[in-house]
Amino acid sequence: DAKTTQPNSMESNEEEPVHLPCNHSTISGTDYIHWYRQLPSQGPEYVIHGLTSNVNNRMASLAIAEDRKSSTLILHRATLRDAAVYYCILRRFGNEKLTFGTGTRLTIIP
Amino acid sequence: EPEVTQTPSHQVTQMGQEVILRCVPISNHLYFYWYRQILGQKVEFLVSFYNNEISEKSEIFDDQFSVERPDGSNFTLKIRSTKLEDSAMYFCASSDSRGPGNTIYFGEGSWLTVV
Q1: Residues 15 to 74 of A: which have CB under 8 A from any B CB?
Q2: In this complex, do A92 and B100 lie within 8 Å of one another by their Cβ atoms?
Q3: Ramachandran area for residue A107 (φ above 0: left; ψ -120 to 50: alpha; else beta)
Q4: Would you say residue A96 has pLDDT above 90?
Q5: What's the rounded mean pLDDT across residues B104-111?
């Protein structure tokens, strides 16, 4: 299975944009890139996903590199509620379960 | 917004006892999952369930675990004889479709403590 690499932790100031990177250099052509987050003492929460093109939704944007070997989750204006562990996960046909790594722990500074 | 609900939120049980964790998936969803997270560790896949049968299970999901959809709304995880190492947060999840582009929705979890 293709693996992802994320920084263990990041900090950001409240009300500023946050760019969370993810490397997936062994990604295959049919792997979808998913982002989930887990707030303290809560279940994982879907954030966004994409295949090749950049994606936007009400929570975030996903920027996918042209070679698909990396992606960046963008929170446009961080709030204290965005403090969570963010997971970048690859999924493919035939192995569709979510395989969580250690993710990036995002701290928001008031 | 529809959500996955789980009960109980927290259960303490004696080692060797049977435990049933209950989940109500989102109403129009057909695919159901259990994951667990031992304190301080990663979220781990246990089992997926569709059309009244297990579609995939992990190595963790051994003979002491079972899942059931006893009626049209509930989805349960049974641990037959609990061990200390079963202490964890158990998350139920559901989705309306298969495929790597689908979205899986998680509940808030049931915290199981085995003493």
Answers
A1: 30-32, 38, 42-46, 49, 51
A2: yes
A3: beta
A4: no
A5: 98
Is the model's pLDDT at A1 over the cut of 70? no
Residue B111 has pLDDT above 70, yes or no: yes
Across the range B13-37, mean pLDDT stands at 97
Q: How far apart are CA B35 and CA B88, in angstroms?
A: 10
Residue B107 backbone phi and psi in degrees, to 5: -85, 180
User: What is the DSSP pairing of strand A104-109 with strand A9-13?
Assistant: parallel
CB environment A56-74: b (16+ within 10 A), e (fewer): eeeebbbbbeeebebbbbe
Tokens representing residue B27 in the block: 């109403």
Q: What is the residue type of A104?
A: T
Q: Do A92 and B44 touch (CB under 8 A)?
A: no
